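JOB MANIFEST
job_type = single_chain_structure
chain_count = 1
residues = 153
[input]
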Amino acid sequence: MRYHLTKSLAVILILIAAALFFSSCANSKKVHSSLRQTQGTASVPVERVYFPTNGASVIKKDVPNLEKNAEWLKNNGDAVVILEGHCDERGDDEYNLELGDRRARSVKAELIRLGVNEEKLSTIISFGERKPLDTHHNPTAWQKNRRVEFVLR
């Protein structure tokens, strides 16, 4: 009887842990350039930042998006973001993970330069080629996949 009770308690604890894990995943909101999500009553217009092949520096045409993101972050005191670096499918996994990390760090450095408090940029994650926006195997898809995403925490 005691063994059965201990086993049942273990199952309940596992279910509670799983529920907590999945509820925390649901609380992270990915903000895409094609849509506006709300946080309370505020609209969250945060744009992706894109990169050239093998590049980790913010390109000139994406500076306005980055400036808009910086302004939004400065004007929304409680907002904290995770920066996710992504790559296209070309290159080996190790290289792409490192490149995604450099891209996210580049965006973080630019946001800090633009006056965003470093504490609002909680984490940098590199997914390399593992989370493509476009799964096709062509230059248009590759261009979409070389990016940094902002995830509200």
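[summary]
The first strand starts at residue 29 and ends at 31.
The chain has a mean pLDDT of 79.
exit_status = 0
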